[in-house]
Each structure stands twice: as structure tokens, then as C-alpha cells.
Amino acid sequence: MRHADFSTSAISATLPTAPTRPTGAIGGGSGFGRAFADVQGEVANFIQNGGGASTPALTPEGSLWHARSAAAVLAAPDADAGSNSDDQQAFLDNIAPWAREAADKLGVAPELVQAHAALESGWGQRPIRNAGGDSSHNLFGIKAGGKWDGAVAESTTTEYVGGAAIKTKERFRAYPDGAAAFRDYAQMLLDNPRYKGAIGAGSDAHAFAQGLAKGGYATDPAYAAKLARLAGKLQGSNG
Prior knowledge:
The chain is mostly helical. It has helices at 11-14, 21-25, 31-48, 60-75, 85-106, 110-121, 178-191, 205-214, 223-237; strands at residues 152-161, 164-173. Helix 5 crosses helix 6, helix 5 packs across helix 7 (178-191) and helix 6 (110-121) packs across helix 9 (223-237). The protein starts with 10 loop residues before the first helix and ends with a helix.
């Protein structure tokens, strides 16, 4: 997902997971790639089990990656940086009908869907564009995997590996309009068992954000916290 440009998560939910591409791209089957995967799994296990006596101590390498991920969370910028309140409200008003439709399918509050779109697209100010410069209408940074047979747009994005940001080019889904983007977003989440924790979260922003992060929606180590924080702001403004 295109989470790097505007990207707030419990680290346990956002360590790079198997579905993310950068991890597999580093080193491939080399010794470094295997070593990195071992360290990554070690840190994920440590955080998931909360440390403690029953959890093996981290190796020096694992401690380094753990510290870097924690630092990334503390240094993460606000999702609304670079956009004024009028622009933000205009964006929210524009996507409101589509967000309500998607939210009804997912069993969540519309503000959570709006927050997710705002986080991924920088309030619509950083759209993923196709080769001709037109918007792909992909407000959720959904990548074009092998099963996607629709239009695509290639864009530079940022993935996080062990807390370190790495620039990479990825292929993203492209849509004819915003309505199609929101419908595909909802269907993608419903069809993918990895995101079951986010489905039916109601107005619980933290549950929704954690469900997405645990499913591997993004590699940003601060992703779930950013999304939950932004969704909480939108819920508060509508309360």
C-alpha cells in the first residue's frame, strides 16, 4: 500500500510481514536475505509475546531492528501535514457518499474509511497517477497483484524494512472514477482473510487500524497508530 508519503501503530502490527514485497526483494535466496528474515521473525515474535521471561531475549541484531522500529514510531509525522483544513473538508465531502457505501459493506463507521483514504492519499493531494499524468483514483494505495486484470499505474513509493525507509517502484490498481476505487477497496478487504480483524469493527478506530496492520496492509511501523489517530480526529469532529 502507498503508506509512505502520509503516513501513526502498535509496532507488533506493522513489522514487515510476508505479503509485503520489499522483504522478499532483498537478497532473495542469499545468505543476507535469510539472515534478515530470521531477525525479522525474531523481532516479530518478541513483540507479539510482549517480551518477558517466557520470550527468548533478542540477539544484538534483533535489538537493533527493534530500536529502529520504535524510533520510527516516535518520529512519525502527522497525517494532516501539508494540507489546510478547508482542503481536508472538501476532500471529506467529496468522498463521503463512497465512504458510506464502503463502510456499510465493511461494518465500520464511515469516518474510518475516510481516514484511511486521507492517510493513503495525503487528503487527495498526492494521487497515484498513470503514465499520462491522470489520476488513477486509487486513494487507498492498493497494489496491482498478479490476479488484477484491470488498468495499472506505476508509481514510486516507500516501504519500510526493519524501520528503514526504502524507495521502490510499484504497480498500483487504476480505476475509472472514485466510486469504483471505493467499491474495489471494500471488496478487497472482504475477500482477503488477512483483514478479518478490521471487518465489523464498527466505530472502533483502533480495532480497524490494527486489523489492517496485522493483515500486512502496509510496512510502515507507525501505520496503525497514524490511522487510528486520524480516524479519532474525524470521529471527534463529527461528534
